[in-house]
């Protein structure tokens, strides 16, 4: 079996299992959405910092989806999100866990910028316009909160200049990459391959037992 990613939570679920969590509460979510529209997600992040400082410390002030879930759990149960994390292992570990991680942050930032430029050149804004026109994908749908899509939707709503959209989209993608690397560094079983090394392909071939 070959798994490639991506979203680190999926790997954590495979390696450690998933803890039983409180179910979603539509009324509390709706109330949080209303508060965010009035005050902004950074204000709700400040609320979370008082109720659950450990979770707030690892979330960006505009990470709407995760801030909402953490506050929802706290308002439902009176307990911080971390109190539901038991750390029980599933017992499954891969034979080989390769992690492509850059050693040069500037190299990563350059690639993120070029990727976002390619998205814009490839008609990304037209794609977001078409999604908005469907009528069933409002701003609170998780898919429309994704990095890039959220910034494009907001730019279309406000008439934001393309240069400003690019700046915010690239910044949000950098933050996502930083969180992904933080996830990876919490997994000591991984074998790190420097993805910005000139011989990265040779390193990968050696790691999987193929001749370089």
Give a description of the structure.
With 212 residues, this protein is mainly α. Helices cover 58% and strands 4% of the residues. It has helices at 8-16, 26-39, 41-51, 53-57, 64-77, 105-121, 124-134, 149-158, 162-185, 200-207; strands at 98-101, 191-194. The chain has a two-stranded parallel ribbon. The chain is globular, with a radius of gyration of 20 Å.
Radius of gyration: 20 Å
Cα distance spanning the termini: 22 Å
Q: Give the uncertain stretches in residue-range form.
A: none
The 3D shape can be described as globular
Mean pLDDT: 88
Main sheet: strand order: 1-2
Structure summary, number of beta strands: 2
Question: What fraction strand?
Answer: under 5%
Profile the largest sheet: 2 strands, parallel
Structural class determined from secondary elements = mainly alpha
Q: Please report the number of helical segments.
A: 10
Which percent range fits the helix content?
A: 55-70%
Write the layout of secondary structure elements.
Elements: H1 8-16, H2 26-39, H3 41-51, H4 53-57, H5 64-77, E1 98-101, H6 105-121, H7 124-134, H8 149-158, H9 162-185, E2 191-194, H10 200-207
Parallel strand pairs: 1-2
Helix pairs in contact: 2-3, 2-5, 3-5, 6-9, 7-8
Provide a concise account of the structure shown.
It contains ten helices and two strands.
Keywords:
single chain; about 210 residues; mainly alpha; two-stranded parallel sheet; about 5% strand
